[in-house]
Amino acid sequence: MQNKTYIIAELSANHNNDFDLAVKTIEAMASSGADAVKIQTYTADSLTLNVKNEYFGPLKQGLWQGRTPYELFQEASMPYDWQPKLKQVAESLGLDFFSSPFDREGVDFLENEVKVGRYKIASLEISDIPLISYTASKGKPIIISIGVAELADIELAVKACRDEGNEDITLLKCTSEYPAPFEMANLRTIPNLRETFGVKVGVSDHTMGSTVPVVAVALGAEVVEKHFILDRSLGGPDSAFSMEPEEFAFMVQSVREAEAALGKVSYKVSEKSKIRRRSLFVTADIKKGEKFTESNIRSIRPGYGLHPKHFHEVLGTQATRDFKKGEPLTLS
């Protein structure tokens, strides 16, 4: 990843099973300033069972209430044959293209058919250590969202990667609510993640707006991920918490401005600025031999004269020549 914040536009289910819409969305991602597009590689069978019992029946609350997980994932999944084609589209626009796999078959497909350059583990897969190990074994950079992870879960996931010899790990602070409330963001976790695990850090954000990404960057986030949709009125499982192009572009601009404002540790002041400070000036005509007093010298702007720290040293000494009102005092 670059030195600047790596900004990922998540396509997720916002293709609405329309290939042309997926292409147009990726084009808009590029125009909005994204660095990468991320998709999800799964079938409904990768994630759940087509069984209508108490465990797999219709959801009782939340954004997808009344729908079974199997139905939801059938609608949201992206056809596998699209994915190599969409990668070509993305790369032609200067975007990186990668995915979240949800089973070993998905990893193999992404590795051998799509040939992605990195992988993402979704929040709800944090406990699937065999999947994380298998993905990490491919030796590609791996990004892991921790939206439903406790500390022990993160430790296991990071260890799984390192046990496969994969040290290129990025942990994303995430709140797995859709949309997520600001008070659950807990962004102070970001620097702690870096300190605790010695990895790169970022944020996968489901809040509305740009506040969380900007604050995350200020706290050291190197990656920002946001869901992207051409128009929320298109609907779909993820539309309610996805950013439209204008919103995403504003977020990118805000993140870049935050990067510029963070800058580096510096106490350097330009010479132009120094001249605007106070210094010692003659405030009344002084004849040679007269003493400098509080009545004829003062500390005022601008900074062409002697530093004000010398004020008391100068008081009571005699002028070695005539001075005119408005003349700066100098060491000579």
TrEMBL record:
Q: Supply the CDD domains for this chain.
A: SAF_NeuB_like
Q: What SMART domains does the entry give?
A: SAF
* Keyword Transferase in record: yes
Where do the AFP-like domain residues begin and end? 279-332
Q: Which Pfam families match?
A: NeuB, SAF
Q: What keywords were assigned to this record? A: Transferase
Q: Which GO terms describe its biological process?
A: carbohydrate biosynthetic process
Offer an example of a GO molecular function term for this protein: N-acylneuraminate-9-phosphate synthase activity
Extract the InterPro entries matched here.
AFP_Neu5c_C_sf, Aldolase_TIM, PseI-like, PseI/NeuA/B-like_N, Pseudaminic_synth_PseI, SAF, SAF_AFP_Neu5Ac, SAF_PseI/NeuA/NeuB
Q: Which Gene3D superfamilies is this protein grouped with?
A: Aldolase class I (3.20.20.70), Antifreeze-like/N-acetylneuraminic acid synthase C-terminal domain (3.90.1210.10)
Q: What Enzyme Commission number(s) apply to this enzyme?
A: 2.5.1.97
Q: What is this protein called?
A: Pseudaminic acid synthase
Gene encoding the protein: pseI
